[in-house]
Amino acid sequence: MLRVIFLGTGGSLPTPERNPAAIMINREGELLLFDCGEGTQQQMMRAKTGMKSLSSIFITHFHADHILGIPGLIQTMSFQGRTEPLKIYGPHHVHEFARILSALGYYKLRFEIDAVDLEPGDVVKRDGYSIHALKTHHSVPSIGYALIEDERVGRFNRERAIELGVPPGPLFSKLHRGEQVEVKGRIILPEEVVGEPRPGRKIVYSGDTRPCQEVLEASRDADLLIHDATLANDQQEWALESMHSTAEEAARLAKEANVSRLILTHISARYSENAEPLLTEAKKVFGNVTIAQDLLETEVVLRDEIGASQK
Amino acid sequence: MLRVIFLGTGGSLPTPERNPAAIMINREGELLLFDCGEGTQQQMMRAKTGMKSLSSIFITHFHADHILGIPGLIQTMSFQGRTEPLKIYGPHHVHEFARILSALGYYKLRFEIDAVDLEPGDVVKRDGYSIHALKTHHSVPSIGYALIEDERVGRFNRERAIELGVPPGPLFSKLHRGEQVEVKGRIILPEEVVGEPRPGRKIVYSGDTRPCQEVLEASRDADLLIHDATLANDQQEWALESMHSTAEEAARLAKEANVSRLILTHISARYSENAEPLLTEAKKVFGNVTIAQDLLETEVVLRDEIGASQK
Fold first, then answer.
1. Contact, A167 vs A186, CB < 8 A?
2. Collapsed DSSP state (helix, strand, coil) of residue A199
């Protein structure tokens, strides 16, 4: 499972329909939160994501609309009895912000917060995937993130294994793990029954940024790109000044990076209720584009599995 | 106009239905906010209260669920171009909290925050009303608030004035303001056409507290008492330990104080969807009781005007 849940899709000003920035990724049951705007804990309750499995929060930058949900969320997790430490990653000053955010409201946390400073180029290696910090271009120190799964072992050809006389059971697993087995005096090699390794899936989240080379490179052939699309073309100047992207700019980047799918987020309050202009301008450039909305959930599938998963 | 808008009615843990504590009072167009839990700015948008007319925030205590909405709200008001200073009142440490809350998120506020420490017994005098800080009994330094309007001038007897030969217009206002006028050589005194002064309205908000004498005294004959009713009777022990009130305890206090109307708030997550047990237990003791829900709005009218206003 690799599922993305949009908890907050608004711009700097929330609206009744759109919470400030927060995107949850559920990877095989582990929850990773990217940005955590005010009200994120309630959105998690609405989306029924649970909180126990939240291992890490990745902050793109320390503008208030990306972080103000942290104090309430950590307090609620503490009330609920959490004792596992929580990692909070972010650009410069993450330690200082984590300290301030934890100092609010008298409460003593029952778990540790482990704040980790990331520079563009840093990689957080996890079991089965890694998170890459990307240079982005915003008005304050900022980073984007790419979640890249490790290459996955090839598919196990069950029929072929049975043909070769391997009995279903532990020997199947052994072969799939890459070990050879012996059946009735004959050595069976893994490559006889296991297909080509499959690439891992890749999700890129730009955070708030002007379109930039670094996000483009990181997004090459991504299965999903989630990009800043604060404004429409009629606000191009303001996009430049506020260091955000227009929907069309995001679509151009998605096209050039050859991504499978583009979801636009950080939608300015002026388009909160009607994001049609953003969608229209993006679609002219890149077909497989969606405007995120709060509580939108989507499964991320490999390009060559899209057909299969949509059956 | 004296209108109360419940923006957040939940307990320490918000739920999908109930935001953390926040109560807005709109008095003749001036907005006063009592507590400001996470998500208050969005609730203000949903209730269409506006933000420009917000003059003051009164904090009952510095538990996170009562204050975490402040940073987002002040940032949004700054984005919207606010330049008028904002008063934030609260018990001990309000300065320190205001400093921390304003320090979050890089932004420079365009307006001043004027933090004011209140002790029980302090009175904030305003034009036409005053706010009294009340001693309350919670697990951290805390205060409740009574909003008491000044005595209002009596009703103007229009028919009597016309009988006395006063022409409708500026002389009516003069008499209503308490000045005598001369009509065709005869002096008309204000007391001939203006009724008895009418008492101002009184609203009491307990904040989080055990039932206590100080809130009882302050609530005597109040037009509206808004009281902590976190728990039902089956959680009486937990109410004692966590220093909250049960619905029945709040109702008993309302009865003893002879208030006109009681609204229960700070509803624990366990009753968030179904607060029937709280209502049933309170109603046995005090009839005119309501369980607050998010976005509930109510006009506060004087006891002797209730009949008239309900026509």
1. no
2. coil
* Cβ-count burial A260-294 (b if 16+ within 10 Å, e if not): bbbbbbbbbbbbbeebebbbebbeebbeebbbbeb
Polymer length in residues for chain A: 311
Residue that has been written with the tokens 């940032």 in this structure: B75
Model ipTM? Answer: 0.86
- For an interface test with A, give the residue of B13, B93, B142 to mutate (most A CBs within 10 A): B13
Contact A100 B104 (CB under 8 A): yes
d(CA B268, CA B235): 11
Instruction: Tell me which chain A residues have a C-beta less than 8 angstroms from the C-beta of B67.
Output: 104-105
Q: Give the residue from chain A lying closest to B77, CA to CA.
A: A13
pLDDT per residue, tens digit, chain B (311 aa), is 999 999 999 999 999 999 999 999 999 999 999 999 999 999 999 999 999 999 999 999 999 899 999 999 999 999 999 999 999 999 988 888 877 777 765 567 889 999 999 999 999 999 999 999 999 999 999 999 999 999 988 889 999 999 999 999 999 999 999 999 999 999 999 999 999 988 899 999 999 999 999 999 999 999 999 999 999 999 999 999 999 999 999 999 999 999 999 999 999 999 988 999 999 999 999 999 999 999 999 999 887 665 444 43
For residue B265, the one-letter residue type is T
Nearest CA-CA partner of A35 in A14, A56, A52, A18: A56
> Alpha-carbon distance B24 to B295, whole Å?
10
For the domain with range B2-152+198-309, which CATH number is right: 3.60.15.10, 3.40.50.720, 3.30.365.10, 3.30.980.10?
3.60.15.10
- The answer to whether B257 and B220 are in contact (CB under 8 A) is yes
Q: Which of B65, B223, B228, B294 is the catalytic position?
A: B65
DSSP 8-state secondary structure symbol assigned to residue A192: H
CA angle A189/A190/A194 to nearest 5° reads 140
The domain locations on chain A are 2-152+198-309, 158-192
Strands B143-149 and B22-27: unpaired
